[in-house]
Hints:
The chain is of the alpha+beta class. The protein has a domain at about 25-75: CATH 2.40.50. The protein has one helix and four strands; from the N terminus they run H-E-E-E-E. It has one helix at about 1-20, and strands spanning about 25-35, 40-45, 45-50, 65-75. A hairpin with a 3-residue loop joins strand 1 and strand 2 (about 40-45). The N and C termini lie far apart (about 65 Å).
Amino acid sequence: MRTSLLLVAVAVALSTAAWADTKTYQVTGPVVAVTNDAITVKKGTENWEIGKGADTKTSGDVKVGDKVTVMYRMSATSIESKAAGGKKSKK
């Protein structure tokens, strides 16, 4: 039982440490749209759609037109690798 708890504690610590090393970015601007799983913020002439989840901290009731600053991290959801220097065709 102690071993299982120790393994869980180590896993949580390592996952937290990995997030701590990930660079944080921010975007500030008026809210264009807000749903349960995303917020869209206008930055210059572009709309930035940023996903959010149950663990996203929000202060106040965010509405369209409000000026917000969104802090976010970029993380890969999948990575596809292809061998470098593929075969070259002869003609």
